[in-house]
Amino acid sequence: MTSSDEQTGERSLILILGDQLSRNIAALKRADPDRDIVLMAEVAEEAGYVQHHKKKIAFLFSAMRHFATELKEDGWQVHYVRLDDPDNSGSLTGEIDRLRAAHPVARVVVTEPGEYRLKSALQDWAEASDVPLEMLQDSRFLCSHERFGEWAEGRKQLRMEYFYREMRRETGLLMDGDEPEGGKWNFDHENRKPAEDGLTLPEPPQTSPDEITEEVLDLVESQFGDHFGTLRPFWFAVTREDALASLERFAAEALPHFGDYQDAMLEGERFLYHSVLSHYINAGLLEPLEVCRRVERAYYEGDAPLNAAEGFIRQIIGWREYVRGIYWRNMPGYTEQNFLEATRPLPGFYWTADTDMACVAAAVSQTRDEAYAHHIQRLMVTGNFAMLAGIDPHQVHEWYLAVYADAYEWVEAPNVIGMSQYADGGLLGSKPYAASGNYINKMSDHCAGCRYSVTKKTGEDACPFNPLYWDFLVRNRDKLRNNPRLKRAYSTWDRMPEPRQEEYLDSARKVLDQL
Ligand code: FAD
Ligand code: DLZ
Description:
Region (Disordered): 174-209
Structural class: mainly alpha
Strand order of the largest sheet: 3-2-1-4-5
Strand content: 5-15%
Helix content: 40-55%
Shape: globular
Organism: Leisingera caerulea
Order of helices and strands: HEHEHHEHEHEHHEEHHHHHHHHHHHHHHH
Number of strands: 7
Bound molecules: flavin-adenine dinucleotide, ligand DLZ
Number of helices: 23
Pfam families: DPRP (PF04244)
Protein name: Cryptochrome/photolyase family protein
């Protein structure tokens, strides 16, 4: 930094957030390494707005430190603030002010934060500040807020499938001219195989912590020792290079079976054929489009079947973009929605895994150990149980936001409030994902070793999901009765003899009283 820079005041302060760790991030693309100054800061406010899992904090701090080092090697002037810097103000806006007090700048530039909370805080700061704030669109996403708005405008119902088809056309991914590869947009019906014995299950590559990561792990242990989760062993990639290696491993080893076993669960198997890439993508170490192009290439080179490649690409250009669109279109207020008026507090076993329900214990304990659970565990085990039991969706939302390494509100809230808890009344999805123990038994081997019997519908030893399923439907009948996708369930209930109905409701009451 030269004194003439200080005088011209043309210099920009480029704020890079912990989940914007990409050389292609919009704010860096517009900046000049010879003139501008990059700010990255570990701050108590971001680390503490929910009780993030220890592994999530360690992942981000280590990835931030590695990225800052890479930027410096590229010739950028990087001002990096560590959490234990004695002058650390504790907030990002405080750190902006501290830096510009020492080095005057003409403007602050940031790529739009992923969370409404932080976007508002920065905008509030800018209103009271004497330097302008430029907030740039996050070009890592395929669909801008405006584009999503155009698509959503005037539609009676928003459904991911139609949005996804537009994203396929716009990206050209798995397109054969104007037609979808293989003649169909969606091969989901091929993607529901339960896991069988004898499958060879690849593990995600394990990166050994280097000196930087070891230092961060010590910091997290000392500063966030009371947060949820097991810190060590820590094996996440913390650089783009290692995240790319994880992508390659996925494409070569797991992708071929990703589709077939996408909805399966197996006791003791934490990852199955899932990619375990979401935390890398969300933090900026991998670009969503490059991940999809790699998967598309695997299909065209004959290394993966179409149902796997299409299923995977749909999760990213379909679901991931769609939930982001829903989030920004409905904030503020979306995280407060409670269509089913559920008020029960979150049971303690969501933190301890201390429950006799084998599927819930497996999902929570691997969440504690890995800061990871795959989609069906999140949706059909912990999410399903919370909705059936009538847990306050805001508490459920805060749990999910805290416990996963990939959790940021823009992606977590629509998945929880919308998809899993139906708290938005059907804005995101067409029906509540409510299921009895039968579904879990079909898709997993958890029930075999469970203290509850999945075939028992009521009574002490019955799988709690069984009576809770009916209790949920009965409890919410006024709100759900007209949903065409629940008509069959309600008519089954209505045909049931009254004493049987009473047994279900009585069993459900007993389960709920014990929570
Ligand atoms: P894979 O199964 O390998 O899927 C590939 C990729 O597709 C993922 O890496 C992810 O980027 C994307 N993806 C898949 N499903 C979704 C989805 N529904 N929404 C958005 N992206 C998707 N995902 C998050 O990234 N952060 C969250 O905080 C989060 N919270 C969730 C909460 C609930 C209740 C549910 C039901 C889902 C949630 N998801 C969340 C979506 C999904 O469960 C995770 O993205 C996935 O489990 C991550 O593991 P993976 O990388 O192995 O995914
Ligand atoms: C999640 C997180 C954590 C734990 N810590 C920081 C931090 O210290 N500094 C930072 O810049 N970002 C952090 N983040 C990510 C932010 O919370 C994230 O950028 C916002 O939630 C917007 O998505």
